[in-house]
Sequence to fold (190 residues):
Amino acid sequence: MKKDVVVLVGSLREQSYARKIAKNAIDMFSDEFYAEIVEIRDLPLYDADYDDINNINKPLPESYVQFRKKIKDAAGVLFVTSENNRTIPACLKNAVDVASKPKGDVAWTNTPVAVISHSVGAMGGYSANKNLRLALSYFTMPTVQQPEVFLGHSPELLDESGKFNNEATFNFVKKYIEQFEKLIKDNPKD
Fold:
């Protein structure tokens, strides 16, 4: 049976570089894994009232229930994110927050994680990568530490069809996905 990997993209734009990079990474997983993008666009902003069973005015959104279940059921989560104003995009931080509640039932617990960041500039989303890792460090989550993936000048790394256009980038990201697969195998959630 294949291990499910949730891929969270830190950009809502359909033709974003982050989404194109995520699709490249998905294609690199071995046959032992099934990786897919789980959309975060329809998650309402996190509000603790949703998790308060005594608050009948704000029922728990079904999108929260489904998202949390996807994270809990996943063998691992791959984040692929751009950098917005030197940090992670709001939609991605919201997804982290939604899966972090309710207290005592955190979806992230023991979920292996990997992070790929990019930017159109030279730094490759360094700040977004570090900020996301900081947010995730609160939870018990095995994480690929090395290599770190900061893809600078991301538009120049992709061809017209959205595929990596050079062997060095392809091989680097492929090696990272292999490291992530090993982390997942070494840290089963069951």
Notes: Strands lie at 3-9, 33-37, 76-81, 113-118, 149-151. The chain has a mean pLDDT of 96.
